[in-house]
Amino acid sequence: MSALLLAACGSPSAPERDEGYDVAEQNYRELHHALLVIDSHLDTPANLSNPDFDVLADNPSKLGRVQVDLPKMERGGLDGGFWVIYTPQGPLNVTSYEAAKLAALKRSDEILQLIEMHPNEFELATTADDAERIAASGKKIVYKSIENSYPLGTDLGMIEEFYNRGVRLIGPVHFMDNQFADSATDLSASDLGGLTPLGEELIREANRLGMMIDASHAADSALEAIMEVSSTPVVLSHTGVSSLYDHPRNISDDLLRKVAADGGVIQINALGAYIEDLEPPAERVEAMEALSEEFNGISPFDLSSNERERYLARRQEINETYPMPLSSFEVFMDQMLHALAIVGPDHVGMGADWDGGGGVAGMEDVSDLPKVTERLLEEGYSKEDLEKIWGGNLLRIMRQAEAAKQN
Predict the structure, then answer these.
(1) CA 392 to CA 341: how far, in whole Å?
(2) Which domains does the chain possess?
(3) pLDDT tens digits for range 85-109
(4) DSSP string, 268-311
(5) Residue 359 DSSP label
């Protein structure tokens, strides 16, 4: 798609601080709660089938797993976001595609059941205009998104099926290369050239329906191919910047400028291992090595469905017994502030990967979101900037996707 380049493709200047402005004299929490606050990547649906989880209760926070519920959203001023239909990557065959499709449809139904069970607290949103209306009614906004299009198999008609079920943001790929695209983290696989021909068809069909494209987890070549094919700007729903920490899941400043010049947005991730070089404890390393030996070094993506579930359960047990060390709020803010310095507040937002591994010391769950607003105000960003960062940029791209929809 064509777009105006940023002025000379340069970096925006830092905001000029209002000399008369003192954050301490402002009720930054009041300002934060007055904003429309949307997160682009909530993995909370993974908790909905857990009998110990009650979305209306103030559940004990568990970093990366239980960070979003109604009381925490209220305290943190989170009006809602994109609730994720996530499916792990599996073998590329008809039987596995069918199993993945059924799992994705079940997760989609669980999100709808959440709304049906709590109609006074949550409402499904399917357009950009829905967000402000739902928030004004006192309910929480539930957009649906797909992380990993693997469950579609090779039947692109399923995209319209998920659209009709409310999905408005779709990501082609996850940890491993699949039938649609190269993954940023599948470093051992053959190069598929960014997008496969089927992947190009996926992008065009999503454009036709008015869905936004999520290029998080996509390899750089896939991200560039998506921007080339798509008629609307791309969303990086939970991504970081590699100039501060060189991880395959992060993108370079040059590529970030291309995303911005194309009208897209980067939503900053708070998963510690993606934003800082964290040394795992020795016990964790030993446990992970034992797990690999137990499964003969076979990739979990090549296991049968039952074996994969057993593997993932063992891995979760290791994660809880020997957790990775935490990154910090300052490291997270360094990521956000760097992205803002490179492309400005028109192209940056929040996608912390809550309940999917995200969270840092000082920002353990969504109740801590006002701290981000406080820090951005201290750095000189305005209320208008914050409106864009906390949801305006996402909704702008959603409106572009809606306008490009073909009947």
Answers:
(1) 18
(2) 7-278+324-404 (3.20.20.140)
(3) 999 998 999 999 999 999 999 999 9
(4) EP-BHHHHS-PPPPHHHHHHHHHHHHHTTT--GGGS-HHHHHHH
(5) B
